[in-house]
Structure formats: C-alpha cells, structure tokens
Write a structure and sequence with these properties.
single chain, mainly alpha, 2 domains, 5 helices
Length: 150
C-alpha cells in the first residue's frame, strides 16, 4: 500500500453493507446463472437433469461459472485478459546440432542425377557451388537462431 492509500483493513471496514433485498437479487441471479451454465455444460439435455443428480465435480464446475458470471454482472469482479508471449524455443544440444550437420552433409554428398548432355566436370562444378551455397545457408540459419534465442 502506498503512503496515502488506505490499508486493506480500512477498505474492508468502509465497504457498504449488503441489504436483504440485494442478497435476494444476488441469489436469484445466481440461480439463473446455474441454469444457464447447466445448459452450457450439458447441452439441451440439461432440462432433464436436476442439479442434485449431477456429479459433485460437475456441480462445482457449474457453481464456479455461475458465481463468476454473477459477480461480474454485479461489478464485484473484473477480469482482464492478458496476452502472454510464446515461450522461447530451446537451443539444440551440441549432439543434435552435430546430427543435423551430418544429415545435411550426407544429403549434399549424394550423387547428383545424370543429366543428358552434361559432363562429369559440369556436375563437379555444380556440386562445389551447391556445397558452398549450403555452407552459406547453414551459417545464416545459425545466425538467425542465435538472434532469435537472445
């Protein structure tokens, strides 16, 4: 509590008392909310089910929903929805990074299919360019991962 703010005890003591009429109205709305929540939980079959016949867990769930909605309706409870950022991706372990590199190297070393009209020399040049390009892509991906993890 701040310097000029009331303590929680002072706030509690200064609250307005509830009248009998207010309590009755609250009970009526709570009962209506229970019926509505029964329909939400059990669907159209809720009319055939009595509140006492449902399981204790379902009773508690409908009561929690009904009480929450009634308190919000009376202004005693306010809810604020907050967006939480997505959790950061975990870094790969050294073993998994090594496995990924080996897999990429195996894929890049696989023989290129023979293209009609191309010599082996052309294929070797293309493979060399491909390896150089893959190396650059790997370096860029690692840099992006480092940036996103920081």
């Amino acid at each position: 509590m701040g310097k000029d703010e009331d303590s929680s005890e002072d706030a509690w003591q200064s609250r307005a008392p509830l009248t009998t009429q207010h309590r009755q109205y609250f009970d009526q709305l709570l009962t209506q909310q229970r019926m509505q929540n029964g329909e939400d939980v059990f669907g159209p079959a809720a009319d055939d089910v009595s509140f006492e016949d449902i399981s204790r867990g379902d009773q508690a769930r409908t009561d929690r929903l009904a009480l929450e909605r009634t308190l919000v309706q009376f202004g005693y409870l306010t809810k604020i929805r907050m967006k939480r950022p997505a959790p950061k991706r975990k870094r790969l372990t050294a073993e998994k990074l090594d496995e990924a590199k080996l897999t990429r190297q195996k894929q890049s070393k696989s023989p290129a299919p023979k293209v009609p009209g191309c010599t082996d020399k052309d294929t070797q040049v293309d493979e060399k360019k491909s390896l150089e390009m893959q190396s650059r892509v790997d370096t860029m991906q690692e840099a992006e991962e480092d940036i996103s993890n920081d």
